[in-house]
Backbone:
């Protein structure tokens, strides 16, 4: 069945070029490592005709809204619904989609009280098909991998990218190769890659070592890399921001706060915001702020110690394993986004992350530790006066609670910080813990527990 509204009046498919973020060179093709042949900077996708074409913001908005009533797979995808701002497909049936996107925007009343920012919302990208924000980028990049004729796709990952890539590859009839740091990603993410049929290599190195190896591999073997260096990934991830603004009736919030690891997501959201402003879809830019774990704070240090001019890599160490990244590939794009939107970059401690995760969980909204850096970061930004109490804030929750059950169990059992430098400080989070109790199977035992809990 075809959609009554799959293309709208005045809406054209997007013809794209690759542009180097360093020298601005435009090209129709990209090399396998997605770097500029001249200056070696990363490439991004650009739409040279977008500004002079007949993009009509009002018509676009109504086209996107109407597509939600359609029953075609491409319109049911919360990513491809916005395809007018994505690289054009030769035909609509070619998208590899799991109906990604369409994620909810929640109010966080308790966290609002804790932070003193009443207008606080969370967009939960962890409710995507494989449980993380990666799906929004993967549907686009996997589709273009298949269109380019590749049989194999590959990525280095802290877990979520590999889970997502493996799923989309399987849906699209592609083979997938996963490089992950041995023993340093959560087993639930690892199990997803296995279930979706990826060839999974656990390498005796960290994420940065896996990514380095992948860069060499793609120059030697006919595999298409699906890390966020791949600009098609970032085009898909842009739609998170389009969907968010649609949910807010195109009224920009004052702040959007996102975790920073390899810095692809922040780059994508920033690109979307600038494009939306340039096309007249929104009237002003929200500030996009990036929060890192203290133990994986390459961008924070790059800005503070090198004024954003050269990357300061770190040996990454954090229990938020998704962002255990010390040499972020998209750091330059992220610096540009911070400059364009006026956002801040901050770091938060392991204790602050664990506390924020428990506070979000207590709202009935589970997320993984890497996502909780956003709430911890917001508290810092409020303290620093960078977020005002009357301003509106959206946190981007990037992954699902079930992605990292070990962290959550460790926190509530009380052994998350055992043997770490935070062991003593961790005790101050005890009031937030809800450890399971083991009881005899008697009514009295359960009634006693109920009574005690009522009092606490
Ligand atoms: N949150 C989660 C849950 C993640 O999985 C990641 C990155 C980030 C935040 C950071 O996003 O890299 O775009 O700055 N995960 C990677 C992976 C890199 O391999 O799954 P980023």
Residues:
């Amino acid at each position: 069945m075809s959609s009554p509204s799959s293309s709208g009046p005045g809406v054209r498919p997007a013809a794209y070029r690759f542009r180097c973020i360093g020298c601005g060179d435009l090209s129709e093709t990209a090399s396998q490592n997605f770097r500029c042949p001249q200056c070696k900077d990363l490439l991004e996708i650009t739409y040279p005709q977008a500004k002079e074409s007949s993009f009509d913001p009002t018509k676009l908005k109504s086209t996107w809204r109407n597509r939600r009533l359609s029953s075609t797979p491409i319109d049911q995808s919360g990513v491809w619904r916005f395809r007018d701002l994505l690289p054009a497909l030769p035909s609509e049936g070619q998208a590899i989609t799991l109906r990604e996107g369409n994620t909810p925007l929640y109010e966080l009343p308790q966290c609002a009280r804790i932070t003193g920012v009443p207008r606080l919302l969370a967009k939960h990208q962890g409710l995507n098909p494989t449980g993380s924000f990666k799906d929004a980028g993967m549907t686009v990049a996997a589709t273009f991998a298949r269109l380019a004729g590749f049989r194999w796709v590959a990525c280095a990952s802290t877990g979520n990218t590999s889970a997502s890539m493996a799923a989309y590859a399987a849906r699209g009839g592609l083979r997938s190769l996963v490089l992950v740091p041995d023993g340093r990603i959560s087993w639930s993410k690892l199990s997803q890659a296995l279930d979706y049929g990826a060839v999974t290599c656990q390498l005796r190195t960290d994420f940065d070592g896996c990514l380095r190896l992948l860069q060499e591999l793609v120059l030697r073997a006919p595999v298409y890399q699906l890390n966020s260096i791949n600009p098609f990934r970032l085009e898909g991830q842009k739609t998170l921001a389009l969907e968010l603004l649609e949910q807010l009736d195109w009224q920009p919030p004052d702040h959007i706060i996102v975790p920073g690891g390899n810095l692809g997501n922040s780059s994508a959201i920033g690109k979307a915001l600038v494009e939306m402003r340039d096309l007249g879809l929104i009237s002003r830019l929200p500030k996009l702020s990036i929060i890192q774990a203290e133990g994986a704070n390459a961008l924070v240090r790059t800005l503070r110690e090198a004024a954003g001019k050269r990357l300061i890599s770190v040996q990454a160490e954090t229990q938020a394993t998704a962002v255990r990244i010390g040499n972020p590939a998209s750091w330059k794009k992220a610096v540009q986004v911070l400059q364009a939107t006026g956002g801040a970059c901050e770091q938060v401690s392991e204790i602050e992350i664990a506390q924020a995760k428990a506070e979000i969980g207590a709202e009935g909204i589970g997320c993984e530790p890497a996502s909780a850096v956003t709430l911890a970061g917001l508290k810092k930004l409020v303290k620093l006066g960078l977020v005002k109490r009357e301003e509106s804030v959206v946190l981007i929750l990037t992954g699902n609670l079930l992605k990292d059950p070990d962290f959550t169990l460790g926190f509530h059992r009380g052994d998350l910080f055992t043997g770490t430098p935070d062991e003593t400080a961790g005790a101050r989070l005890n009031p937030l813990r809800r450890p399971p109790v083991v009881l005899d199977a008697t009514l009295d035992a359960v009634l006693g527990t109920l009574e005690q809990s009522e009092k606490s």
